[in-house]
Amino acid sequence: MSNDNGFPVVQAFGSFTMDLFTPKSDLDLSVNFSAEIEDQCPRKKKMKVVRKFAKVLYSLQRDGIYCGVLPVVSAKVPIVNVIDRGTGIECDVTVENKDGMTRSMIIKLISSLDERFQILSYLVKTWAKIHDVNSPTAQTMSSMSIISLVAFHLQKLNILTAFTMGSADPPSSNIARVLCLVKRWFRFRKC
């Protein structure tokens, strides 16, 4: 990811990048103005940018390109919901959502350890949707919370042992550390 030319970069994250999507999943996008993971954009600035995106998308909605444009600036992470009319894909557009991108990369790495993680994540997410407990706007669990609980459960059952090998510390949000643990796990399994 490079923003050297001064233009923002749009990056996908969430269920699509974690390989945990379904045909009804939305596409999570982050518009990033900085290539640095550590750079944090103030919430007020994110809200301002989301409102600007919403204005542009409203004009494109009038032209029939998009529908369902809905800015949600009061959310914990300000977003604009929008549906592409051509594909029917629903998108959640955020600004500088580095935390979401980092978590998605970590879950993708964890998913590569054992196929049971992905299968159980699908099952629990489906169960949660059926029972209406997978909607942060209704103050229930987010998909990321559900996936984290599945990872914790499998770790406690010693199925995701890569995060217990040689370390008493829980896995952090440090992608390099998680990648090192995953590589170590694959070397260990080959022995």
UniProtKB/TrEMBL annotation:
All copies of domain Poly(A) RNA polymerase mitochondrial-like central palm, residue ranges: 10-111
MF terms (GO), sorted A to Z: nucleotidyltransferase activity
GO biological process, one term: RNA 3'-end processing
Signal peptide: none
Protein name per its UniProtKB record: Poly(A) RNA polymerase mitochondrial-like central palm domain-containing protein
Originating organism: Aegilops tauschii subsp. strangulata (Goatgrass)
